[in-house]
């Protein structure tokens, strides 16, 4: 074995991993993470595993655990290009936690994972601070996380984020297609912008058009980069408030409005959505790239971030609750018996009912 020994002393730091920078990042983020911890969290920051007192589950007759995992996609490329990293964390929380809220589950905890080419403590702390602030706003402990330095795999300025959340719902309170009925109202809750899906399309449009992220767009009243970094709106609190009178929720993420709403429509019923105004950012992207309407509908949320399917008699109360939470909302459509006409039926592995987008969307 002697012949394989090299007189050079190669350190972990020379391999591109700076453990001291990682420790510094933890120190910078520690207080933000701790601020999300409620009375159910056992221990502090830095353990091998996060611990949560789950005694609350004893109050449930038949508790079901709900879980979801996701990332932010190529939106991180814009954050990196503009060197703005404190908003992307809310995108992550919205993408993950609001998926479990769809079934009526109360979030119990969230964890995060950041992979980067080089640990820049201040940058990592900004990302985690954004995650923590969002978690605190919906009373969800950020119970654990990991920052991994991957030199040679990612560039020094590159990173990606992912997260997972776990929640609980009473078995007989699960929301979904089994509850949806003919005549239900479809209540739309406005998105804050593009949220965190479709950024590969958006970035390609800007690239081909030769637009920089610093370009000011009069129709938006800001630069295109700032508009694209507006964080994903959080619907967690208001959806939990509405859960007792709702039949289903639909989080409008990848695949657009119709494909996601179809996931909560039972066979034999059709959701007809016809009323909404598309925000300016979507028209900018559509016009700049000549993007076909079908691609817009199948990729972007077009101004609706969450849909609530509720009995018609609860429509106004649902709208009022959303507006009270500073989320614009309106009656966007109705659930009908499926007439067999043209519609999107089944999506993302779910073989269920249909969705038809009708009318002319104001703004496109």
Topology record:
Layout: H1 19-34, E1 41-42, E2 51-52, E3 63-71, H2 75-82, H3 88-101, E4 106-116, H4 121-137, E5 142-149, E6 159-170, E7 185-190, H5 199-209, E8 216-217, E9 222-223, H6 224-228, H7 236-242, E10 248-251, H8 256-261, E11 269-273, H9 280-289, H10 293-297, E12 304-310, H11 315-324, E13 329-337, E14 344-347, E15 350-357
Parallel strand pairs: 4-5, 11-15
Antiparallel strand pairs: 1-2, 3-6, 4-6, 7-12, 7-13, 8-9, 10-12, 11-13, 14-15
Produce a short descriptive summary.
The chain has helices at residues 19-34, 75-82, 88-101, 121-137, 199-209, 224-228, 236-242, 256-261, 280-289, 293-297, 315-324; strands at 41-42, 51-52, 63-71, 106-116, 142-149, 159-170, 185-190, 216-217, 222-223, 248-251, 269-273, 304-310, 329-337, 344-347, 350-357.
């Amino acid at each position: 074995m002697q012949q394989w020994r090299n007189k050079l002393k190669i350190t972990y730091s020379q391999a591109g991993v700076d453990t001291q920078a990682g420790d510094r990042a933890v120190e910078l983020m520690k207080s933000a993470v701790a601020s999300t911890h409620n009375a159910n969290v056992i221990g502090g920051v830095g353990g091998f595993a996060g611990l949560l007192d789950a005694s609350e589950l004893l109050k449930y007759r038949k508790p079901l655990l709900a879980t979801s995992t996701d990332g932010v996609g190529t939106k991180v490329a814009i954050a990196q290009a503009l060197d703005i990293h404190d908003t992307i964390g809310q995108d992550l929380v919205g993408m993950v936690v609001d998926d479990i809220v769809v079934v009526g589950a109360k979030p119990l905890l969230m964890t995060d994972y950041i992979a980067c080419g080089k640990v820049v403590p201040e940058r990592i702390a900004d990302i985690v601070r954004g995650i923590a602030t969002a978690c605190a706003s919906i009373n969800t402990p950020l119970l654990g996380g990991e920052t991994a330095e991957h030199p040679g795999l990612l560039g020094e300025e590159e990173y990606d984020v992912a997260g997972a959340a776990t929640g609980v719902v009473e078995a007989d309170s699960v929301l979904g297609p089994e509850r949806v009925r003919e005549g239900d109202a479809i209540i739309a809750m406005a998105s804050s912008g593009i949220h965190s899906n479709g950024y590969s399309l958006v970035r390609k449009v800007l690239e081909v058009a030769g637009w920089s992220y610093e370009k000011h767009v009069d129709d938006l009243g800001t630069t295109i980069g700032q508009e694209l970094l507006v964080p994903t709106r959080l619907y967690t609190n208001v959806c939990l408030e509405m859960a007792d009178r709702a039949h289903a929720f639909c989080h409008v993420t990848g695949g657009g409005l119709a494909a996601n709403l179809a996931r909560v429509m039972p066979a034999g019923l059709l959701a007809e959505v016809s009323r909404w105004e598309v925000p300016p950012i979507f028209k900018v992207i559509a016009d700049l790239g000549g993007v076909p309407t079908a691609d817009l509908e199948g990729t972007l949320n077009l101004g609706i971030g969450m849909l609530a399917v509720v009995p018609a008699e609860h429509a106004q109360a649902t709208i009022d609750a959303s507006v009270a939470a500073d989320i614009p909302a309106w009656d966007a459509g109705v659930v009908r018996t499926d007439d067999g006409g043209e519609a999107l039926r089944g999506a993302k592995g779910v073989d269920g009912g249909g969705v038809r987008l009708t009318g002319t969307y104001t703004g496109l």
